[in-house]
Write a structure and sequence with these properties.
60 residues; 75% helix; flat; mainly alpha
């Protein structure tokens, strides 16, 4: 979800629709929890950094 929000500019409502009808508030809570987890988890952060680096090399 974090990449949807960061890389597409999609609203919480749109992200919820894409993930099967999750409510706006549920998306917001999940985003907050994921962001907090990411701050304390260097392994997860490195993995996401690698994915984002790979995405920056993709040409549309």
């Amino acid at each position: 979800m974090i990449s949807h929000k960061k890389h597409t500019g999609a609203t919480n409502k749109k992200i919820g629709e894409l993930f099967g009808g999750i409510s706006y508030s549920a998306v917001s809570k999940l985003y907050q929890r994921f962001t907090k987890e990411l701050e304390g988890n260097r392994i997860l952060q490195r993995k996401i950094d690698g994915i984002e680096k790979g995405m920056s090399n993709v040409k549309a």
